[in-house]
Specification:
160 residues, 5-stranded antiparallel beta sheet, 1 helix, minor pseudopilin epsh fold, 4-stranded antiparallel beta sheet
């Protein structure tokens, strides 16, 4: 007579402790990656806005020279939009801080909605205030050179 060893049952599945360890590691990973992803998205949104604003100003200047008329770029604080000639719009995200200095409206000037920031003239000149787009206290300030009508960008940092 042969003696058979008792057969061990194979358990499939995980223990509660193993599941808790995996869930804690997953939660830590999500917290680290989620925070990094949000920061990355904010940074990407800022850089895209800076490019869009620069592009809008170049389009306004080009249109002014091509059509032989003054083009006004205005900022609408209620909707957080930069508007050129009432046609092109750039949305400025809520996560970004916006500072501006408007130009004075001249008597008989074409009315525009919002605060007029820049005016590009058909002779190549320009007049304007300024526009700063900031993220975490640092950003870009836009101005126009009144004589040459060129758009100037400079780094700006708000005092903390």
């Amino acid at each position: 007579m042969t003696c058979l060893a008792p057969v061990r049952r194979m358990h499939s599945g995980f223990t509660l402790l193993e599941l808790l360890v995996v869930l804690v590691l997953a939660a830590i990973t999500v917290a680290v990656v989620g925070g990094s992803a949000q920061s990355y998205m904010d940074r990407a949104r800022y850089h895209q806005t800076v490019r869009d604003v620069a592009s809008l100003l170049v389009q306004a200047r080009t249109l002014s020279e091509r059509e032989g008329r003054a083009i006004i770029v205005a900022y609408e604080p209620e909707s957080r939009q930069l508007v050129a000639d009432g046609q092109w719009r750039v949305d400025l995200p809520e996560s970004l801080q916006v500072q501006w200095t408007a130009i004075e409206r001249r008597k008989g000037a074409v009315p525009v909605s919002g605060e007029p920031l820049f005016q590009f003239n058909n002779d190549g000149g320009a007049q304007g205030g300024s526009l700063s787009v900031l993220r975490a206290g640092q950003g870009v300030k836009y101005r126009v050179n009144w004589l040459l009508g060129r758009i100037e960008q400079s780094s700006v940092q708000t005092p903390s």
